[in-house]
């Protein structure tokens, strides 16, 4: 099938952007994005003139962001000066359109950036400007970009809104099964015991949809991390310095196999995509599923504000990172060839003003990544608890954002699907991961070197 004829994953986009072939047919878009000419700024950070080009994404994930962006741009123009040409990108455009525009010398002035490898390859290509020395140190420190936005001590993104990674659960089904919905399973044994009770009331205890691969990615992220001592260990696995065949590094796949064998996973998991699987929980057919905090308000609309819970994956691992919540964030950066960097810098600082940070939650009910966000405006108890545990308290970066594309498609995706259809064991998944890692390493010596440097940043974070 023509890959352009179906919906895109972020991993596909890496293949057609920084990591491989470029999109064609983007000429009109690039021609329209030469970047605005900046007029002279007034002394002392006064008003600017000219136009600033902004390329952004997120309405698809957090409905309502369009209003926040429009309000922000109008206020920025009124207070700082430049007019803003705003372009809401389709998911299929985010990586390749930017990579092509940057290579042609016609990038926007501010670019939306997913985290980790999704923007770091463009940084390695020289398409993104390090923000240190441009954006204020205070904004860089508190923006919530996460450690995955830093390479060799240079930060390439500021954060925007936060994404807590965990497991959502249907509290109504927990109560029906005689479980304490306010005390979800904390250990693996707790999870197995709860799953037995949930199975007894005729629902699938745990699962979702793995057809498009994302459940497998989320499972690896939350499971693998439990047996790591540092996020840098994930990079060492992806570049072959640690061995996937060592039992602790594929235990998450063995645990997934255990759940399937026990009959705790919905039988149609391989035929459903991620969001179709999450809908099973929202319609009382599934008790628990891997999920993200950005989806919780939508689940609450279907199950009631008190009908949804969110937890860290129950612990089975013995690593130093076990039991700690995972946090990701969306963000923005400045292209190296931006024609209005001064306006871009001011815009990044403007969106991290207290007023704009707090307006993000008030407008969209999404928790800002900014660590200075005032949570007093949160009235939803579930979102308040997520903010405290996933953002304020100690948290970890989302390590699948470090995953090479070949590993995603040929190891993680294949392993999760085959384990769930009963044609691969967790141990065999470790063998496959080792094989694909060796293949990727042989093909990409330059990326291996960059990954090695990146691991040093993570180890120091």
Describe the structure.
By secondary structure, the protein is α/β, with parallel strands linked by helices. The chain folds into two domains: 3-163 and 327-399, Periplasmic binding protein-like II (D-Maltodextrin-Binding Protein, domain 2); 165-326, 3-Layer(aba) Sandwich (D-Maltodextrin-Binding Protein, domain 2), CATH 3.40.190.10. The chain has 19 helices and eleven strands. It has helices at 10-16, 27-31, 65-80, 94-103, 117-124, 137-142, 171-176, 188-200, 214-224, 232-238, 251-261, 274-282, 296-303, 341-350, 354-364, 381-392, 405-420, 426-443, 445-460; strands at 51-56, 83-88, 110-113, 150-151, 154-155, 158-170, 204-207, 286-292, 308-311, 326-333, 396-397. Strands 1, 2, 3, 6, 7, 8, 9, 10 and 11 form a nine-stranded mixed sheet that branches. α3 packs antiparallel against α15 (354-364). The chain starts with 9 loop residues before the first helix and ends with a helix. Mean pLDDT is 90; it is low at 1-8, 19-32 and 34-44.
In short:
The protein is 43% helix and 13% strand. By secondary structure, the protein is of the alpha/beta class. Helix 9 (214-224) packs across helix 11 and helix 10 (232-238) packs antiparallel against helix 19 (445-460).
Key terms for this structure?
461 residues; 9-stranded mixed sheet; D-Maltodextrin-Binding Protein, domain 2; 2 domains; 13% strand; 19 helices; alpha/beta; globular; disordered N terminus; single chain
